Amino acid sequence: MEGTPSNGSNASTNASLDENQFVQPGWQVALWAVAYALIVLVSVVGNLVVMWIILAHKRMRTVTNYFLVNLAFAEASMAAFNTLVNFTYAVHSVWYYGLFYCRFQNFFPVAAVFSSIYSMTAIAVDRYMAIIRPLQPRLSASATKVVICVIWFLALLLSFPQGYYATTAELPGRVVCLVDWPENTTQTYQITYHFCVTVLSYVLPLLVIGYAYTMVGITLWASEIPGDTSDRYQEQVSAKRKVVKMMIIVVCTFAICWLPFHIYFLLQHFKAEWYQEKYIQQVYLAILWLAMSSTMYNPIIYCCLNDRFRIGFKHAFRWCPFIRASKYEGLEMKSARYLQTQSSMYKVSRMETTVSSIAGNPEEELDASSKTKRLSVDLASNGSSRSDSKTVSESLSYYSNTLPP
């Protein structure tokens, strides 16, 4: 996060820090504590379950889902390591955690936010390539892991200056954590850094994502492929629409949650007097809560909009008395190897049926041949990044049809 969120409600490093004017009643602190604790609980548990659903089930290990794992890791880490520390510092304006954590507090959130938004960007680009340019080579699992490593390298590089200049300072009766930028009367370094962080971790990726999903949306919703109206084709288009719709909601949620935060830290360079008012602490706590809450919404979105994630969450929380995971839902979460076995059995059954029908009525041979060719075309047009998805796609449609709504 830019602009030293650990500076809390002060948001300035001038002499006015000497007086701790941001003291609020206990009941207000209690209410804010409950609100921030809710973020930590929902975010950490929800994102860990998302990671388990993807990593523990081979069927879920796709290019898109690998980026979702990275997104979940970044958000869970930020919620666990930074949210409550930010809250206590914003409430008390006293730094309790030492110099090392002061630097970590200013370093890691910037990297986590960068990693989150560029994971979403990578997903948008992958969807764009799969739907707009389906004949182009897709990312392999190894290439996806390399992209994730590059994202984290760039994220750590971007966050390094703020962590490097972070320090603690002794004031009368308290210690504060701040970013001590090199001396400059015009605050050139600070303003330049905040502007770069806003552009690189918010504006630029959202522009790329917006363009990618606009083109994908036009292709999936506003156009039809002539001559292909088979049920299998319609199922594929519907599935792709659901994935794109889910990711658009994820991105919009992120953009809405972080917009006030970026505005808050950019405005301090133009309206510094506003940040000395007593009410600014409540404003900052609300803005910080909204930004941090972005880490807890994604698991809820996945659970509501994606059948397989919903199944995974049901299995993760099946110990709850009001949650039931049926037998068919268990089949859907089996590994790809299990599904391939089922697919082979199903295909053998279809072949036997086809052979018997041809033997009974030789005149239908040409029709059966055309159907077989059409089936191969439908399977080839899946657009999935995993080869095993193409192999088991037909059996999956059978299993998904047996799932309760």
Automatic annotation (TrEMBL):
The keyword Transmembrane applies. Coiled coil: none annotated. Keywords: Cell membrane, Disulfide bond, G-protein coupled receptor, Glycoprotein, Lipoprotein, Membrane, Palmitate, Receptor, Transducer, Transmembrane, Transmembrane helix. The keyword Calcium does not apply. Disulfide bonds join C102-C177. The chain crosses the membrane at residues 29-55, 67-87, 107-125, 146-165, 202-222, 243-263, 283-305. One of its GO terms (biological process) is positive regulation of cytosolic calcium ion concentration. Residues 377-405 are annotated as: Disordered. It is a multi-pass membrane protein. It is found in: Cell membrane. GO terms for cellular component: plasma membrane; sperm head; sperm midpiece. One of its GO terms (molecular function) is substance P receptor activity. InterPro entries: GPCR_Rhodpsn, GPCR_Rhodpsn_7TM, Neurokn_rcpt, NK1_rcpt. PROSITE patterns: G_PROTEIN_RECEP_F1_1, G_PROTEIN_RECEP_F1_2. CDD domains: 7tmA_NK1R. Its main location: membrane. Residues 379-405 have a biased composition (Polar residues). Residues 46-302 form the G-protein coupled receptors family 1 profile domain. Signal peptide: none annotated. PANTHER family: G-PROTEIN COUPLED RECEPTOR TKR-1-RELATED, SUBSTANCE-P RECEPTOR. Belongs to the G-protein coupled receptor 1 family. This is Substance-P receptor. It comes from Podarcis muralis (Wall lizard). The lineage of its organism: Eukaryota, Metazoa, Chordata, Craniata, Vertebrata.
